[in-house]
UniProtKB/TrEMBL annotation, chains A, B:
Zinc finger annotations (C4-type) as residue ranges: 58-73
Protein name: Recombination protein RecR
Family annotation (HAMAP family): RecR
Source organism of the structure: Pedobacter insulae
Protein encoded by which gene: recR
Keywords, sorted A to Z: DNA damage, DNA recombination, DNA repair, Metal-binding, Zinc, Zinc-finger
Keyword Iron included in the entry's annotation: no
Amino acid sequence: MNFSSKLLEDAVHEFSKLPGVGQKTALRLVLHLLNKEQEEVMHFSNTLIKLKQQIKHCTVCNNISDHTICSICAAPKRDKELICVVEDTRDVMAIENTNQFFGVYHVLGGLISPMDGIGPSDLFIDGLVERAAKGSVKEIILALSATMEGDTTLFYLHKRLKDFQIPISTIARGIAFGGELEYADEVTLGRSIITRVPYENSILK
Amino acid sequence: MNFSSKLLEDAVHEFSKLPGVGQKTALRLVLHLLNKEQEEVMHFSNTLIKLKQQIKHCTVCNNISDHTICSICAAPKRDKELICVVEDTRDVMAIENTNQFFGVYHVLGGLISPMDGIGPSDLFIDGLVERAAKGSVKEIILALSATMEGDTTLFYLHKRLKDFQIPISTIARGIAFGGELEYADEVTLGRSIITRVPYENSILK
């Protein structure tokens, strides 16, 4: 690109580092901001700086939080004995949106991925083991992505947690609700036949 | 979305104001930045603030510039008597990328659009008339989008400029190079038959 301005080029360069943002999109975003009032651009930038400087991780569950204990861990209504283990904040938000879970979370901060050089020590796993060791946990739900990394992490967590005699469960995998059989991928379809549930135990009962 | 953090929510809100960025994309971008070092986030924000505070508009052509005269208007090699009128900086960059134009530009800062409440007085048209009035311009090329707004602006500019006895041209419209006839839209195809050029004048000669 032929930039007539170094200032513009620098800003476009910064935006194009964001995931999924190419040079053309970056230029469009920067020119959009440039058309805004100075006040608005300052507010945009300062919100980001404030986020980075003031954000904390909950000391209990490692979720992103404004305080040292996050709003979920601090809520008296939530069941502290039921822990749902997830990869990151986005998963917490996704599960919260379902309104089906009333326990607390444990945010690993990633998944084990030897390909990307992420090992167990890079994740907040010791914190989970500590919580399990305290003895007041009645179930740990492992809600991880159904990917190679998710399965590796699942396997590792099970190994670390199995001696505490706490029931460990994983979220159900199978054909998505509303999904048509003919469009399901072979692995999912094959596994949902192998892991079939008695009709009395199914959600349809 | 259920945000566990007000700081996070504020930042996502700011990003989702950008064109083409929804809440999910905004969250992804903000979490990406949150994973970066504080230094990098500061640099990102400060680049934007610096751009907004220091950017200028060239006093000759109105293009975005780091100085009061932009690098194109200041270049001794560029033909100052040939002016190409465009909507915005992106069009300047697109034309510069072709390496086919060696004159200077005039950036209107938009197109006349009564639907959006943009009239001629909102654009840098008086500046163009002043340049034309100086008498040293040998041709004005109107390189505007082939849209309703572009055509309206074209018509208005022609009315304002026609008394100066300067040749006014518009960029050629027709079937795009590499375009197959059967996929061309009807209007373009119809007009390119009406505005057909003698073989001797065509680029194929």
